[in-house]
Amino acid sequence: MAEFSTNERWRTGLAPRVTADHDGKRKIPQMKTMTPRLLLALPIVLACGALPAQAEIVIGSAGAITGPLASLGIQEQRGAEQAVADINAAGGLLGEEVVLRFGDDQCDPRQAVSVANRFINEGIEFVAGHLCSGASIAARDVYADEGVLMISPTATAPEFTEAGYDTVFRVAGRDDQQGAVSAAFIVENYPEARIAIVNDKSTYGQGLAEVVRQQLNDAGIQEVLFESITAGESDYSALVTRLKAENVDILYYGGYHTEAGLIARQLRGQDMDTIIVGADGLANDEFWSITGDLGAGTLFTFAPDPRNSPDAAEVVERMRESGFEPDGFALHTYAAIQTYAQAVEIAGSTDVDAVIEALNNNTFQTVVGERSFDEKGDITQPAYVMYEWRDGEFTELQ
User: Fold this and answer.
1) Nearest to 228, CA basis, from 257, 207, 258
2) Are strands 299-302 and 275-278 parallel, antiparallel or unpaired?
3) Strands (E), 225-372
4) DSSP string covering 33-61
5) Can you point out the beta strands (E) in 265-392?
6) What tens digit of pLDDT does each residue of 82-110 get?
């Protein structure tokens, strides 16, 4: 009989699927009864000695293509499409064409689970995604139960890699690292400021806010206000009124660009010069579309801009030639697929266990720089810098 990988044997009914137990470690369940279709096919498989060769490798990517964060999801989608196009232009992966499926989860955890289940039903064994931390965590559990490899380009919540799954990686940093940079910046530059901390109730936003509060408190700085808002609203005047009453100098905001932009506009409408400090959720051109010049001086943390790196120059040029300006979300998604492709080539197989071993034991050259992973699946080269919005673009502070 021909040799089959674990996943190939699962698809034929010759072996059970590897799943995960509650401590995050994978286990092999009891053999399930083969369906009549598989029983009919089995004599053919045994007679031929092998399954028909698969002509393509199908991968998935998921994020918010519709909804309030669609501008970020479109960046992710375009980055995934460019990565797949470049792989295929270079001869494919293991000599086979790579096919991309994309799922729209709107950054909603429930929809992310639906997307994950659809991907599994389609036989996808690798996913670059999801965009938002809450959606990524919800989908992560589904993928881990089915032995599907996941490399997130943008999920930054520490919880994402804390469950102990060996199928989970990310090419971005963590919010406990990102929040620490913001807190250190505030302590160094505004030690006497009156500080408010606000979040949008998301896993991402709340996590950032808590890290910044803890870091500031440890440095002897006590915030004057810690508050949550409801994302998706258009009027944050009640919050702005409270900020004005507290005479807030610095507003740290844990959340995304849409609400941050509206808050910035409404602050200026109350003649307040409060400085907004945020995170990578503000690294989107739509922020300036919302604020115009009223957004000038807004600060946020993000990874060093990969568009300025020689590693990304050719990819950025190709995307610009198509009329699309990539940002860090596009290039991090490109890097997630790029990392997977390199790991598959090293492993010489798409078998999930072989690819995981390659990911754990090698360093990968990507458009966002070198990437290698620790035992949790986090990168060992995290880096965040501070940016400032001004004149319609954001630039790194020197």
Assistant:
1) 207
2) parallel
3) 225-228, 250-254, 275-278, 299-302, 364-366, 369-371
4) PPPHHHHHHHHHHHHHSSPPPP-EEEEEE
5) 275-278, 299-302, 364-366, 369-371, 385-390
6) 999 999 999 999 999 999 999 999 999 99
